[in-house]
Amino acid sequence: MFEKFLEFGPDPNCPNGSLIINPPLHLALQFSHRKAADSLLRNGADPNLVFKGRTPLHVACYKRRDDLAELLLNFAKEVDQVIQIDALDKKGRTPLHWALLNGKKQTTEALLRRDANPNLADAEGLTPLHIICRKGKGHDLLEMFFKINVELDKPVQIEVEDKKGLTPLHYALLNYGCKKQIVQLLLRNAAKNRRLNLTFDQSGSTPLHIICLETNDDDNADLAKIFFEINDEFNQPWQVNAVDKKGRTALLCALSNDCSVQMAEVLLRNGVDPNLADAAGRTPLHQICRIYNQDLVEQFFEICDEIQLTVDINARDDKGNTPLHLLMQTSISSQKKQSNCC
């Protein structure tokens, strides 16, 4: 019936239609009517027609079906027609952005192989790589993304920042799903291209700060190890003593989060200064004594002795307190709480 109607010759682009009503091709794709979309294309529907900022390819990539985008791409190739693969919608997003937001691996590959730009940023400054890392739903998509762009000789901008000052690596670290594999892929691809750098976000935090501020300490100690292993493998310099806007090194961030001995050891053995103080004048030893972690105090000194690091035990914070002062204050406070509970 639909094909018969088109045989009467109506313009499938409805040039005189209302600006409120979707063009037929947009509607067919929106409701996943593949056969109708194919008929419209073969009867003159424009695969690049823009309606409310969206092309048919945008609409196809909103949907979770891979065959709709492939229909448009294959038709354009069949009739040798240029399709606007990097068209921007009102949010500044390309079809590739939407394919990734919907987790469509097959469509993503098809778009990249049809010359989609892997580095275009949307209105929020998010590139396709930001989106992959922000969603954090598996390293296989990221692996494919890098592989195809290497094949096509298209360098992926790994260190680019969005409007919040966050890189793809920041987003990968802020996510929990498949984090370790994604971080490894990002770091290795950055290191291979000699573009590895500890970029700061708006709070002054490097990716290493973010690792140390998270609560899943065993996993984060492993992530910190990965950072330093890749650093050694590719001979890349790390700003291990970089400070955030509170003057904290990664070690101070880890200690403020009541980190494990394992995390502290990873940082100390990889060059983090055990004496650098934060904006309040507190050193790592101040922080350890403030949280009253006896095991960590003992291990801290043992590790520093083993790797021949001198710890300033008499350093004073802005209030004139040494680590011993804080240890005594915390001990007295703890005893008072225990007495009140009895």
Automatic annotation (TrEMBL):
Repeat as UniProt keyword: yes
SUPFAM superfamilies for this protein: Ankyrin repeat
Family annotation (Pfam families): Ank, Ank_2
Record key words, sorted: ANK repeat, Repeat
Name of the protein in its database record: Uncharacterized protein
ANK repeats: 24-52, 52-84, 91-123, 164-198, 246-279
Chain segments annotated as transmembrane: none
PROSITE patterns recorded: ANK_REP_REGION (PS50297), ANK_REPEAT (PS50088)
SMART domains given in the database record: ANK
